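Bumping my old thread because nobody answered last time. Still need a sequence for this structure:
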């Protein structure tokens, strides 16, 4: 959640952020009003409590009419204290609830606007030129006997699939290469839970009561994660970290689950928009003043992975209205998909500043001895979707696919060959 002190000192910063996101900036006045009323209620409660304690001490020294008057006043104060405490608690709950609904402050420099208002920062690599009609990843997957969408639908329904043979080897090789790169960069590899408590999901920035993308197990009050960012963000919840250990960097490997509730009719063919996929996710805890530079480091590691698999791609600076709740700034890397004639997102890296850390109460103790909230950042290093771009960009006329050189030791093949049936 946002910092109340920052809100009080510079409310226009949140107003500007809300407008950049396309959100209602009247929430600023609502927050300031609730905050002022809560603090007034707390002050009133504390004053009444102080008087109550003072009278309690005086009763033992008084006698006669004076003692009775003090007892009557103490009784009256007890009722007032109870009422004042209840009011402060109610206002505090209302303030917290409203704070949880407010997205992070947008970082200065992020483009304003919605989904289509991104800014292209850089285009890298040459788009392939074919002397034949390129096949899409679905046809290639069938030729290679690598992707079985038909049986995925039979077993589990729409937007599910099987990876088999070289398809399974390609994904495992890709994710293993991502983990290896992360380890070499100093990340701790993690196999994370895919079921989390509601407070973990809410703390990371997801609105469990309203987000239609999330799968829920109501009998257990658990949620299936759409990214290992969630368990990694909650990993140090309610902890005070050693300042000397920062930055702490983790690379989480997990299956991810998304309902794709709002994607009716979109990407129904293939494995671009599916309910289940695997991903390696980078996650970093650092000092807030180091977060901007750490964000650029995560982006550089994403570019390194994309360069290894020899894909043409571009980097976009995501517009404020498309950032999501937790991100203050987000860069996406989008690979060229030849049969679609467009770029599609493969990776995303977000600087969440201290937004998640405040919700999850993750802090560090600096040289001054006082606890401060850390900053958290995340970035995708590889996902199942990469298979789409690898197959389409590295295909040959006979339906075979050349495995990128850096990936070959992990896949165990130089070329994926069509399977005769």
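Sorry it took so long. Here it is:
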């Amino acid at each position: 959640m946002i910092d109340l002190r920052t809100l009080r000192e510079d409310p226009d910063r949140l107003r500007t952020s809300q407008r950049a996101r396309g959100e209602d900036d009247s929430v600023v006045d609502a927050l300031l009003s609730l905050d002022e009323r809560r603090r007034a209620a707390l002050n009133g409660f504390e004053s009444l409590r102080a008087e109550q304690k003072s009278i309690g001490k005086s009763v033992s020294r008084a006698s006669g009419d004076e003692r009775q008057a003090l007892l009557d006043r103490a009784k009256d104060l007890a009722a007032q204290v109870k009422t004042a405490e209840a009011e402060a608690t109610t206002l505090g709950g209302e303030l917290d609830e409203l704070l949880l609904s407010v997205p992070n402050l947008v970082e200065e420099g992020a483009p304003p606007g919605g989904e289509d208002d991104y800014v292209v920062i850089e285009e890298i690599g040459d788009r392939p030129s074919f002397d034949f009609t390129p096949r899409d990843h679905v046809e290639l997957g069938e030729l290679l006997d690598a992707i079985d969408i038909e049986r995925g639908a039979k077993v589990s329904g729409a937007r599910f699939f099987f990876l088999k043979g070289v398809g399974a080897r390609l994904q495992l090789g890709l994710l293993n290469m991502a983990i290896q790169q992360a380890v070499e960069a100093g990340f701790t590899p993690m196999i994370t839970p895919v079921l989390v408590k509601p407070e973990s999901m809410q703390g990371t920035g997801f609105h469990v009561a309203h987000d239609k993308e999330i799968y829920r197990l109501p009998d257990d009050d658990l949620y299936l994660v759409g990214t290992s960012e969630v368990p990694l963000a909650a990993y140090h919840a309610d902890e005070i970290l050693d300042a000397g250990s920062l930055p702490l960097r983790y690379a989480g490997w997990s299956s991810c689950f998304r309902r794709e509730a709002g994607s009716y009719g979109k990407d129904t063919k293939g494995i671009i928009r599916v309910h289940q996929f695997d991903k390696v996710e980078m996650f970093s805890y650092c000092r807030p003043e180091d977060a901007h530079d750490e964000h650029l480091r995560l982006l550089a590691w994403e570019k390194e992975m994309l360069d290894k698999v020899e894909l043409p791609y571009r980097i976009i600076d995501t517009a404020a209205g498309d950032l999501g709740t937790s991100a203050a700034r987000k860069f996406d890397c989008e690979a060229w998909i030849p049969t679609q004639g467009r770029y599609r997102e493969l990776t995303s890296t977000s600087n969440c500043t201290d937004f998640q850390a405040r919700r999850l109460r993750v802090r560090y103790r600096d040289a001054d001895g006082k606890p401060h909230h850390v900053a958290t950042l995340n970035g995708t290093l590889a996902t199942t979707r990469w298979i789409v771009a690898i197959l389409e960009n590295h295909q040959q006329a006979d339906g075979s696919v050349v495995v990128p050189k850096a990936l070959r030791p992990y896949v165990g093949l130089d070329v994926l060959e069509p399977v005769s049936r």
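The chain has a mean pLDDT of 92. Let me know if any region looks off to you.
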